Amino acid sequence: MPPGADALSPAIRLDRVTVRYHVPREVVASLKEYAIRRLAGRVEHNEFVGLREVDLVIQPGERVGVVGGNGAGKSTLLRLIARVRRPTEGRVVVRGRVAPLLELGLGFHGELTGRENVILQGTLLGLSRREVVARIPSIAAFAEIESFLDAPVRTYSTGMSARLAFAVATDVDPDVLLVDEALAVGDERFKERCHERMKHFRDRQKTFLLVSHNLPEVVETCQRAVWIADGRVMRDGPAGEVCREYKEWSRAGGAGERKT
Amino acid sequence: MPETAETYDSATRSNRPLAEARELWRFRHLVRELVVRDITVRYKRSFIGIGWTLLGPLLQMAALTVAFSAIMRVQIANYPVYFLAGSLFWNFFAQATGHAANLTTDALELSKRVYLPRSAFVASAIGVALVNLVLSLIPLLLIALATGYPPGPTWFFLPVSILIGAAFTAGVGLVVFTLACRFVDVRDTYLVLLQPWFFLTPILYPKEIVPEKFQALMRYNPMTYLVEVFRAPIYDGWLPGWKTLLFSVLAAVVSLAVGWWFYASRIDDYAARS
Quick check: is B169 in a domain? Predict the structure, then answer.
């Protein structure tokens, strides 16, 4: 492939991806129980399909919202792209560094200072220590916690640690940013700046995926939306249209709640 | 273009042990930060901080010397150094593998949300235990000096002993960690098993005092050789015998190979069930 062709290839590509979960009918959590049941020949599984033959192509720089009911497969989709879960069938290709926006302060350790947590968090996202250290000033500035940087995170307010988490995830310069309903952190002013940063992402050809139940937010932030129901892509198109259809469909009672 | 190097393709997955090893190397910075985190948290919480690492062995030695000196005096010259050398190595092994089992909760929580090779947690558990082992060489050195056993040139062999020991420990740690990711009772079972294992290893006593009919237990216990490889340069002042060395290297290689293979082939499946 000539080097030029590279820039044109999609940031995310899913080819006929199916994800199946094997859920044991009873929870066999201990080795002892497992051994007994194995000998008795009764470990039964329920199969549960998270996604069914999903095809999806997302170009670099696209901002895509993912909508759908609970259990429709949205989070499974995000996990596939974050490489946390592997497809049972099909193929997932993701180009560039992926930063999932970690749940508020997940992986933060209360006894460690803000600075130490930022370094840990940055290396969790695949950066080297030196790379993270170089970004600390801008991360602290964005999260507005400069003067608390060397205080233990357990002394932070919820808002402060949420802002810090957001600042790290977006400052590590990911090529693909995955957000699971987490934009609602902080006050109005901080939200404003989050959106500002998102815009900045778009301008630099970064890809952005947002999973949310908040349809106005999806329409506002994303140009494209994918509606998933029962593990299938129902509709894929301009955010406004898809959200409107999804809303009508939900209101009509097809509330996409899936039975396993 | 550096970015293309970071392309993830779920379809390419040839050799899992090899792929997992590459991933661990790619996340070496994370391993280092996890080690730093554990050590910082541990010492921040405790009142005398890093002193614990230095004081712990001293206290343990003092208590056991008082308790066992009377019994062991006949058999062992300079019991404190004999016991401390062996027990420091055992502590390294027990701490690293036990900590690896403890870290499964962290590993499972995090790896549900962000991609990372879970072996980083095993590596960090070994890293933390290694730091503690090296630090606790200081009180050992002091005691050796105080009891008239000044360290000789054989101490320079210790890095090799530690390397062999760490490889063996990593293998055991990987198996325990992988199983503990799947089954909740593995951690406690393992901690219980460590107890008899400790007493079956000649640490408190010299292996010569063990009756003939139990000698086999000692011979098939890899820890016997690994402890010996660590203790001989300190206590005996000579290098471990070639047979001991050969068996310990063999144990280390087999342990690491089996552990890594088991980890690489099972961990995705086990973690997905948790």
Answer: yes
CB contact under 8 A, B8 and A91: no
Q: What is the 3-state secondary structure (H, E, C) of A64-89?
A: EEEECCCCCCHHHHHHHHCCCCCCCE
* Span A78-106, average pLDDT: 81
Express each pLDDT in A121-140 by its tens digit.
888 887 888 999 999 999 99
Number of domains in chain B: 1
Is B191 in contact with B55 (CB distance < 8 Å)?
A: no
Please tell me the predicted confidence (pLDDT) of residue B97.
Answer: 96
ipTM of the complex as predicted: 0.78
E strand map for A74-180: 89-94, 98-100, 176-180
Mean pLDDT of B35-39: 88
Mean pLDDT of B94-115: 88
Closest CA of chain A from B34, distance in Å: 7
* SS3 category, B234: helix
pLDDT tens digits, residue range B221-230? 999 999 999 9
pLDDT at residue number A128: 86
Chain B residues whose CB is inside 8 A of the A100 CB are 113-114
Does residue B6 lie in a domain region? Answer: no
CB contact under 8 A, A119 and B186: no
- Which of A31, A48, A127 is best to mutate for the B interface (most B CBs within 10 A)? A31
What stretches of chain B adopt beta strand conformation (E)?
A: 8-9
B269 — contact with chain A (CB < 8 Å)?
no
Q: E strand or H helix at A84, and its extent?
A: none
Does the pLDDT of residue B24 top 80, yes or no? yes
Range(s) of the domain holding residue B141: 15-273
Amino acid at A101: L
| Fold observed for domain A3-96+213-251 | Rossmann fold (3.40.50)
C-beta atoms surrounding B48 within 10 Å: 9
CA A180 from centre of chain: 5
Give the nearest chain A residue to B190 (CA atoms).
A31
- Contact criterion met (CB < 8 Å) for B3 and A85: no
Which of B13, B38, B39, B114 best probes binding to A when mutated, by most A CB atoms within 10 angstroms?
A: B114
Q: Are A46 and A179 in contact (CB under 8 A)?
A: no
Strand partners, A21: A48
Strand partners, A45: A24
Decide if B40 and A116 are in contact by the 8 Å CB cutoff.
yes
Is B8 a member of any domain?
Answer: no
Rounded to two decimals, what is the model's pTM?
Answer: 0.85
Q: How far is B28 from chain A (nearest CA, A)?
A: 8
Give the nearest chain B residue to A107 (CA atoms): B110
Instruction: Indicate the pLDDT class of residue A103, thresholds 50, 70 and 90.
Output: low
Q: How confident is the model at residue A43 (pLDDT cuts 50, 70, 90)?
A: low
Of the candidates A32, A84, A96, the beta carbon closest to that of B6 is on: A96
**Average pLDDT, integer, range B154-165:** 95
Q: What's chain B's length in residues? A: 274
